[in-house]
Amino acid sequence: MRGSLQAYKKVSIDSQLSAASPHKVIQMLMAGAIERLIQGKAAMQQGNTAVKGERLGKALDIVISLRTCLSMDDGGDIASNLDSLYDFMIRQISHANQNNEPQPIDDVVDMLREIKSAWDQIPAEFHNLTADQVGI
Q: Residue 128 and residue 136: Cα distance in Å, rounded?
């Protein structure tokens, strides 16, 4: 049953991604990172090292992906600031994982939620614009 549910979720996510705008993909990545971080923290608190490592590793991969998506040439100060913030998050997640410390995870979740909240407020008419078109 669990395998069937996981397969269904994967198909659902794959179909959402294939129809998603770049804006929606970033929203999905941020939501996925937050979810994995929360799951990783729960596994840490339960002493489940394998699940903790797997979930925090996935969250780390997502944050690294968000960082590599930045357009440093077109994004100006915003891209530079996000690059620094993502770098900080990467170090915090790694530190939390290595030292079994939940607080850095909470800090990263808070930061991602704040960035996602701002991202979610971007009006729909701007979702498919490039940095050049917006003037960033």
A: 14
pTM of the model: 0.81
CA separation for the pair 71, 1 (Å, rounded): 42
**Nearest Cα to 1, choosing from 32, 9, 58?**
9
SS3 (DSSP) at 19: helix
Q: What does the DSSP 8-state code read for residue 102?
A: S
Residue reference for tokens 């269904």: 8
> Distance between CA atoms of 63 and 25, rounded to whole angstroms?
13
Contacts of 102 (CB under 8 A, 6+ apart): 41, 44, 45, 96
Rounded CA-CA distance 55/97 in Å is: 10
Angle at Cα 127 formed by Cα 122 and Cα 133, nearest 5°?
100
**CB distance 35 to 100 below 8 Å:** no
Q: Which of 67, 63, 57, 64 is nearest to 94 (CA)?
A: 57
Q: Determine the straight-line distance between the first and last CA of the chain, rounded to whole angstroms.
A: 48
- pLDDT tens sequence across 83-109: 999 999 999 999 999 999 999 999 999
